[in-house]
Amino acid sequence: MATTTKKSTAEKKQASFKGPVLRSEAFARAQSKAKLRVVGPGGLRSLFEEAAKKAAVIPRHRLKENWLYLQTMLRLIGAHERREYRQVSEEDLLWIVTALNYLIDPVDLIPDMAPLVGFVDDAIVVEFVVEKTRKTLEDFMIWETVGVGKIK
User: Fold this and answer.
1) pLDDT single digits (tens) 80-135
2) Which of 22, 129, 1 is CA-nearest to residue 76?
3) Is the distance from CB of 126 to CB of 97 less than 8 angstroms?
4) CA 80 – CA 86 distance, rounded (Å)
């Protein structure tokens, strides 16, 4: 017997925004800035500080299960910037930095103060990047748990 899963109105709304968000000028801007932050001096430190402040005000329910991964992205960027954790590919690092850049962009696709849909675009970008970097994020969580240098 097949079971049907009913999506909430918020989930349907979020799904309808996915394509436009990922094709938006704001997302493209976040991607191009990611490359500059990764190679520039202090770029990851300032990103970490700005993104941590922004993450603190995002309602957790907007990100659902990806809230944990957003927190992991922040910790990974901090550890990478301090040179404590370097087992992340350049591609995954760029995706993570892109997500955090999008998060802090005051001129993203949907203004965060917009009622009901304010953080929908941020949630879409975080979810998209989690899908691309899940293994890296989970490896980092394991590394945090077992300690420095325990996994390769």
Assistant:
1) 999 999 999 999 999 999 999 999 887 765 666 555 566 778 888 899 999 999 99
2) 129
3) no
4) 6
| Closest to 119 measured CA to CA, from 50, 61, 52 | 61
Candidates 10, 14, 16, 17; CA nearest to 109 is: 17
H/E stretch holding 76: helix 66-81
Rg (CA), the chain: 16
Q: What is the pTM of this model?
A: 0.79
**Crossing angle of helices 90-104 and 120-146, rounded to 10°:** 130
Cα torsion 126, 74, 46, 86: sign:
negative
Per-residue DSSP letter, 84: S
| Distance, CA of 137 to CA of 109 (rounded, Å) | 26
Domain definitions of the chain by residue range: 16-146
